[in-house]
Each structure stands twice: as structure tokens, then as C-alpha cells.
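Ticket #4471: structure output looks truncated?

Reporter: J.K.
Steps to reproduce: submitted the chain below (126 residues) through the standard prediction queue, then opened the result file.
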Amino acid sequence: MTFKPKNAVVWMEIPTADMEKSTAFYSQVFGYKLFTDTSGPNPVAMISTADQSGVAGHIYPGKPARDGSGPTIHLALPGTLEDSIAAWKAAGGKVLSDPITIPPGRFAYATDLDGNSIGLFEPAKG
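Returned output as attached by the reporter:
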């Protein structure tokens, strides 16, 4: 039997060495309204979706992989790829590639303040 889930990815976790800096970074770049959840073993900064039913995740105190060596998480952008690349750089992140076009949209590889590999993703129009 072949397993075909509705969503192959169901949750993401972004490790950080500094919760305060990372929370500010992701809020600045994406305009997220992050909230702290202290119900688990560690406080986490929750990233929400529009109707609370989409795939989301959190930022947590943890040990990031060496610069760009962990898995890549592609995040939906609030605007154009070019605007988001500029915001990413202005907030202190690094952009590692030129824009790459694929059938679902465009993205650029980047690393955040902790070196986590992040794809800045703009969906195709239409």
C-alpha cells in the first residue's frame, strides 16, 4: 500500500542559540506575530498560520546544525522574493543563491542568524 498524506510535512522546528534574537529576526523579516508557549519542557516561539489549521512550527532553544548543513525549511514569504531577500539581509541573515524558479514558484537559499538553512519561497502567481 502506498502512503500519500495530505501534507508530507506536518510541523517544523527551528533551533536557535538565542531565542530573543531569533524571535526578533523572524518577526522582522516575515512580519510574524510570534507568541511564547511555555507548556512544554522549553519555551518556544510559535509561528501561526492564518486560520490555525495550516502547517506551522516554532523556534526553540536548541543546537543548530553547522552553517547550512542541516535540512532546509522553505518558508512562505509575505511579499516578493526580492523584497524578502532585502529584508533577510537587513536583519542580519545571509542569502546563498540567486532566485531559483521551479513550477510551484521561486525561492532563494539562505541561512538565518544561527546558520539554519532556510528557503525563502514565493509561490507562482495564478
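Triage note (M.O.): checked the attachment and the full C-alpha cell line is present. The two ends are 34 Å apart (CA to CA).
Status: closed, working as intended.
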